[in-house]
Amino acid sequence: MKTLRVIALLLAAVLLLPLFAACGESKENTDGPAKTGEPATADGASHSAGDEIETEADDGKSHTELPADLNFGGASYRIQNIECASYYDTIIALEQTGDKLNDAIYDRDARLMTDMNFVFEEVVVPNDSAVNTIRQIVSSGDDAFEQYVSVDWRGYTLAQEGIALPISALPYVDVTREYWAQSIHKDMSIRGKLYYAFGDHNLSTYDSVNLLLFNKSIAADLSLRDHYEAILEGAWTLDLMQANMMLATNDANGDGQWTDADTYGITSASKQVLPCFWIAAGLRCIDKDEEDVPYFALSGSEKFEDLYQRILSMMHNDHLLFMSDSLPDYANNTVFIGGTILYNIVRTAFLHFYRDMDIDYGIIPYPKYDETQETYYSRTEGAYIHIYPITLTQYELAGAVTEAMACESRNMVIPVYYDEVLKSKYTRDRNSTAMLDLIYGNRFYDLGDTLFCSVIRDGVFAGKFKENDKNLQSTIKMVSKMAEKTIKNYVKAFDKLEESAG
User: Fold this and answer.
1) Over the range 350-367, which residues count as b (16 or more CB within 10 Å of their CB) and which as e?
2) Residue whose C-alpha is closest to residue 368's, from 300, 307, 318
3) Quick check: helix, strand or coil at residue 155?
4) For residue 283, what are the contacts with CB-CB under 8 A and spacing of at least 6?
């Protein structure tokens, strides 16, 4: 059943107003979270976690160019949100709860509603029914919501059907600003145009990033090279990781039967292994040409062929991998929690399962392909997107609120999410917090792993990996035909939208 949550916080906002600073203009673009310190990088330098070094205004905050006198006369900004366990799904906060992240969102909302004189309203629906609900509402011509939420690939289907507006249709929104995810947008655009954009008010873009956990007890017992030292020196490579996993893997009772009673180098759901490592190597299944049109990029790639054969060989032939597919919930990897596995492939959203783990763990990025690779890359495994329907009438309100939410989330919410939640709740040493800065500094959003996941990652590569099918040439031949057809239809649909709009 749908649940209605209406936030009317204007009185509270008036009381809280002295706590907040005003918004103005910012200078540089970056994709990383706002933080108080400057983390060390793999080459020993010190800079922001974003794509570029950021210079903010004198007060250290990000600022929009919104007019200072915006007043929407108490209008309602209506959101249809989705309820899903995968990522943090709170967009607006109903009340203060004492939870620092919730209360930061509450404070942001109170400030925005006071500054621009509007009220948030929210309806929450199940994730699985959200897209059909959006279709029904918008197709009927009902201007019911300013904003909808959907899983990324489903949202793009709605855009192709002409139900969603491009983000550029909203006034005031400037997706080139530092509170919008620049590196991810490079992968999401079509012919230079964005239909959806990820801003700092969308915490799923942080929750969806993949990282590695490592068991510190096993690392110490095996006298492995210090992970943090190797990473900061740029020496954390696939070679080193493989050597570590080989040392950790052991048939504990010597019976030749590999079960959860044995010790393994790594654990993961089978579908997650390949994309984490191809992205860590700086590869994409789907890349863009000079016209910003996607194409299947793995045909003829010697680097991918080497990586593919190597990953399959080490994971299957050497028994380094414990597949967590058989567990009730692969996100909650109880075998890793039990202390018999060196590495665990996880998403940030899964870290809460390991908070109370008795055995100490560290958080690190995926390894480089080799030492010639300049930096570490992190996989963004899809996210929720915010959809603005063609039935929208309150354009000024939608644009102003969207831009302000992204900006003030960077100032007020992301520091809490990053420093108080990730760094305080889920990390156990200062080194792990520096690793988070590296992990979030270079996020990849591979369309073959997200929008075209059902065709490429889950459609082909997940099964080939699980079956240990090393016949890559036939696999590439098969998947390239499927991918090219899917991409062609995908681009054609957006071209038709542009033609009809023109």
Assistant:
1) bbebbeeeeeebbbbbbb
2) 307
3) helix
4) 297, 298, 301, 303, 304, 307
Q: Which amino acid is at 216?
A: K
Type and span of the H or E element at 151: strand 147-151
Q: DSSP 3-state assignment of 116?
A: helix
pLDDT tens digits, residue range 460-490?
999 999 999 999 999 999 999 999 999 999 9
Give domain 3-18+64-207+383-425's CATH number out of 3.30.420.10, 3.40.190.10, 3.40.50.300, 3.30.565.10: 3.40.190.10
What residue ranges do the domains of the chain occupy?
3-18+64-207+383-425, 210-379+429-501
Of the pLDDT bands very low, low, confident and very high (cuts 50, 70, 90), residue 177 is: very high
246 residue type, one letter: M
The structure tokens listed for 443 are: 């996020």
CA distances to 134, 153, 194, 244, 295 from 490, in Å: 20, 11, 14, 42, 11
> Residue 69's Cα: distance from chain center in Å?
34
Same fold, 3-18+64-207+383-425 and 210-379+429-501: yes
Question: Strands 210-215 and 341-347, how do they pair?
Answer: antiparallel
State how far the Cα of 394 lies from the Cα of 13, in Å rounded to an integer: 23
**pTM for the model:** 0.84
Question: Nearest-CA neighbor of 498 among 287, 198, 194, 290?
Answer: 194
- Give residue 28's pLDDT band: very low, low, confident or very high (50, 70, 90): very low
Helix (H) or strand (E) holding 323: strand 321-323
Do residues 264 and 426 lie in contact, with contact meaning Cβ atoms separated by under 8 Å?
A: no
62: which 2 tokens?
Answer: 């990000």
What amino acid occupies position 363? I
pLDDT tens digit string along 305-327? Answer: 999 999 999 999 888 999 999 89
In the chain, % of residues over pLDDT 70: 88
Is residue 152 within 8 Å of 384, Cβ to Cβ?
A: yes
CATH 3.40.50.1100 fits 210-379+429-501, yes or no: no
Find out whether 178 and 28 touch, Cβ atoms under 8 Å.
Answer: yes
Q: Can you read off the two tokens belonging to residue 231?
A: 């990473």
